[in-house]
Amino acid sequence: MEVIACVDDNYGLMFNKRRQSRDRIVTDHILRDSRVCCLYMNEYSAQLFAEANQGQIMVKPDFLECAGPEDCCFVEDSLLLPYESKINRIVLYRWNRKYPADLYFDIPLTEHGWRLTEAIDFPGNSHEKITREVYCK
């Protein structure tokens, strides 16, 4: 399974039960990059993709349990450590800023053997620079 998440410089995901930020160009990237698989997410995250969903998005409350080995999961408000053994690739979109956070991406990448295999910067809609990082084991 591939996991996709947006994080700040401290790996923050959410603050006060809300996403830290959002960017239309990141949403477009996620849809484009996951077009060959099912893109799983929960109802909260599906709101980001409502206008662009053309049938590839599967919305389920237990999406991390439902996703298969070839599927993608967009994660905003879920802990991933319990599912790490199912994950074969992690894609992080970095806001390149520090935001307040109370929920963090919980997989310690380096300590658990994840290697950065790709990093690309691009301009976003709401952020001057967004970095897309790909990690593999």
Overview of this protein structure:
- With 137 residues, the chain is of the alpha/beta class.
- The protein has one domain (2-136): Dihydrofolate Reductase, subunit A, CATH 3.40.430.
- 13% of the residues lie in helices and 33% in strands.
- The protein contains three helices and ten strands.
- The strands form two sheets. It has a seven-stranded mixed sheet. Strands 3-2-8 form a three-stranded antiparallel sheet, with no helix packed on it.
- The longest helix is centred in the N-terminal third of the chain and has 10 residues, at 24-33.
- The relative contact order is 0.28.
- The mean pLDDT is 94.
Summarize the structure.
The chain has helices at residues 24-33, 43-46, 63-66; strands spanning 2-7, 12-15, 18-19, 39-41, 57-59, 72-75, 89-94, 103-104, 115-122, 130-136.
Secondary structure: elements and pairs:
Elements: E1 2-7, E2 12-15, E3 18-19, H1 24-33, E4 39-41, H2 43-46, E5 57-59, H3 63-66, E6 72-75, E7 89-94, E8 103-104, E9 115-122, E10 130-136
